[in-house]
Amino acid sequence: MPYPTILVRGEIKLGQFLKLADLVEDGAEARIAIQSGDVSVNGEVERRRGHRLSDGDLVVVDLPAGLAGARVRVEP
Questions:
Q1: Which CATH class is domain 5-75?
Q2: Burial 30-59 (b: 16+ CB within 10 A, else e)
Q3: Which PROSITE patterns did the record assign (predicted)?
Q4: What band does 76 get if pLDDT is binned at 50, 70 and 90?
Q5: What are the sequence ranges of the domains in the chain?
Q6: Which residues contact 13 (CB under 8 A, 6 or more apart)?
Q7: How many CB atoms are located within 10 Å of the residue 64 CB?
Q8: pLDDT in tens, 7-28
Q9: What are phi and psi of 25, to 5 degrees?
Q10: Global model pTM greater than 0.90
């Protein structure tokens, strides 16, 4: 299943991207998902909410309803 690409301007952190891409509802849900090990960046579990994402990174969240994800597209 192809994931949507989300356009961002400049630098974005993992927690912010989860909200921007509508993968979580709010910052609290982002924090819980990341701390629980339910978020991966490029196939690797990422537990740092402040992890800086790069152009082309694939972020996937293991939600109760199944996997959801989005790819980062950085616009300079």
A1: alpha beta
A2: beebbeeebbbbeeeebeebebebeeebeb
A3: S4
A4: confident
A5: 5-75
A6: 49, 50, 51, 52, 53
A7: 5
A8: 999 999 999 999 999 999 999 9
A9: -80, -35
A10: yes
Q: Which residues pair with 69 in a beta bridge?
A: 60
**Rounded mean pLDDT, 43-61:** 98
Report phi then psi at 68, rounded to 5.
Answer: -135, 145
Closest CA to 22 of 63, 76, 50: 63
Tokens representing 17? 């991207």
Compute and round to an integer the Cα radius of gyration of the chain.
Answer: 11
Q: Max alpha carbon distance in the chain (Å)?
A: 35
Token pair for 34: 């990341």
The confidence score (pLDDT) of residue 1 equals 65
The phi, psi pair for 17, rounded to 5°, reads -65, -40
